[in-house]
Amino acid sequence: MKFRILFICLLVLFSYQLVFSQRFTRDDAGQIYFIDSTTADTVKIDVTGAVFKIVNTGATFEMTTMTTAQRDALTASNGMIINNSSVSQIQGYANGAWVNLGAGAGGGISNVIEDLSPQLGGDLDANAFDIQFDDADGIHDSNDNEQLLFQLVASAVNYLEITNAATGNEPSLTAIGSDTDVSLTLDGQGAGTVRTLSSNLDITGSIEASTGFIGDLYDASGAVDLDIGSADVTDVTITTDGGTVILDGSISTSRGATAAGILIILEDTDAGSNNATFTVPALAADTDYTLPPDDGDSGEQLQTDGSGVLTWEASGTTLWDE
User: What is the pTM of this model?
Assistant: First the structure.
């Protein structure tokens, strides 16, 4: 009986030596050493400092390698780390999702997460770096609809600057860049328009129509309401290149409490800079004049019927009723 027990013990010991070629020791500092009996490669685990360190510079730590399908078959828990051969990425499981841990060429994270709907647990701090978008990429809403797309220009030197503001001031959207003069283009699609929903539109510069025309200005009810100027405006000039300014409605001219309104008609600039003016005195009531239907004959004079209807009559003619 004793012989049989001794034989079994020797067999187990022999099998252990054949199967396991490593041994481990523990020193007085609480460090555990795993030593390969053949290569002498040593792995040290510092128990007291909670540090896992491979001492031999010729040795490496290799994570478990599996495909995405094999990974998804796991019962994953936060803290797992694998090498995913399907995407050639070191991945870790955190906050209920697999995260790519491999760094890109720029030193950042090349793929934040394999999940198509990643979520941040807090604010995104760019840490003085830029957020880069590919051409026609941008920001989508929670339904994956486009909200803001960026179009790429490889040689771009001009760009937009958005500035917030303190109390009593307004935020700004500014076109800036390397060029001395940088314009800003707001464009609708097709026959679409560019609208401002504010009750006031304050323009400190000029409005120019480089092509086409400037269309109607509408009020809140949809009626055309073009009101140019204010008490601080000295002159308002509408200039066409030999064309015509058409106003579909009435024209009122006034200078407030300073003087009566004046209609000024300038002569041809080739002839000089003189003008003819029409004004009115103080009136007891509104006075309407209706012009004749034609330009009259030579020598005729303009007469009124007493109700503001004007006609051309022969010089010296007197209108009377029997």
Answer: 0.41
At 140, phi and psi to the nearest 5? Answer: -115, 160
Answer yes or no: is 222 within a domain. Answer: no
Separation CA 102–CA 130 (nearest Å): 19
pLDDT digits (tens, 9 = 90+) for 148-164: 999 999 899 999 999 99
List CB contacts of 319: < 8 A, sequence separation 6 or more. Answer: 303, 305, 313
Asked, for residue 209, whether it belongs to a domain, the answer is no
Q: Provide the number of structural domains found in the chain.
A: 4
Which residues lie across from 309 on neighbouring strands? 290
User: Counting beta carbons within 10 angstroms of the beta carbon of residue 292, is it exposed (0 to 12), middle (13 to 18) or buried (19 or more)?
Assistant: middle
Instruction: Give the three-class secondary structure for 66.
Output: strand
- Extract the tokens encoding 157: 């030197």
Name the β-bridge partners of 290.
Answer: 309
Q: What are the pLDDT digits (tens) for 219-262?
A: 556 665 555 555 555 666 677 667 777 777 778 888 878 888 88
Give the domain extent around 154. Answer: 131-187
Is residue 111 a contact partner of residue 126, using CB atoms and an 8 Å limit? Answer: no
Can you say whether the dihedral through the CA atoms of 52, 57, 62, 63 is positive or negative?
positive
Residue 173 belongs to some domain of the structure = yes
**Cβ neighbours for 299, distance < 8 A, ≥ 6 positions apart:** 314, 315
Whether 11 maps to a domain, the answer reads no
